[in-house]
Amino acid sequence: MTMPKPTIDADANALSAICPSEVASAALPIEGSYTLFDSEIAIVQNAVAKRKAEFAAGRAAARAALAKIGLTAQPILKAADRSPVWPNGIAGSITHTPRCAASVACQTSQFASVGLDAETSDPLKPDLRRKVLTQSEMAAATAADALTVPNCKLTFVAKEALFKAVHPITKRYFGFHDAEVFLNPDGSWSAKLDATAVKLPPSLALTHGRWIASPDHVFCIILVQPR
């Protein structure tokens, strides 16, 4: 018997479940027909077809999230560091996998920044584990068996989300080993930054680390909030 493929609704519902009420979310299939603004088309005009599809779906997901907080459709361009340029007063994040594009957005009056990442739920390749996980994270991933997804992959997704939340504020790059992620079976997670590599201003703090697994994907979100 052939099992039905999970629908994009499962991803959208999973993402919505880990977002606080102030944060809007949307998830769309990569394989779709999406309209871009001319200024956005120019960004990917020389890209391969795969990149164009990812970009279009990601921008469509971002506009769907923005619409939920009352913003009209508008271009989402690209900064010099390749990150999306959000409307004034908005914090957001975009992610995509081979099958899904997702986005979250909120008012900066509520959260200073937000980071979202998604990956397929297959295990992290062994050669990447030591590049991504610290020694203590490796030990925790080996010891824990309560999580419903591979711990190594989940740590990777959390660190990607963490970078997307922190970098817009600090404008500093940091590596996987410059952060420590602590995963909890209840779907929460937290992170500690190595202050010698990067640190948030004292007035800001990481908050609302959440993870969830849909049939196809793992999603992680984290926010930066005024103390």
Q: How would you sum up this structure, described in words?
A:
By secondary structure, this protein is an alpha+beta fold. The model is unreliable at 1-5 (pLDDT under 50). A hairpin with a 3-residue loop joins strand 7 and strand 8 (217-226). Strands 1-3-2 form a 3-stranded antiparallel β-sheet. It has a 3-stranded antiparallel β-sheet with strand order 4-8-7. It has helices at 8-17, 38-43, 49-68, 126-132, 135-143, 151-170, and strands at 24-29, 90-96, 100-107, 113-120, 179-183, 189-193, 204-213, 217-226.
How confident is the prediction overall: mean pLDDT? Answer: 93
Runs with pLDDT <50, length 5+? 1-5
- The total count of strands amounts to 8
Provide the β-strand percentage band.
Answer: 25-35%
The percent range for helix content is 25-40%
Shape call: globular
Order of helices and strands: HEHHEEEHHHEEEE
Largest sheet: 3 strands, antiparallel
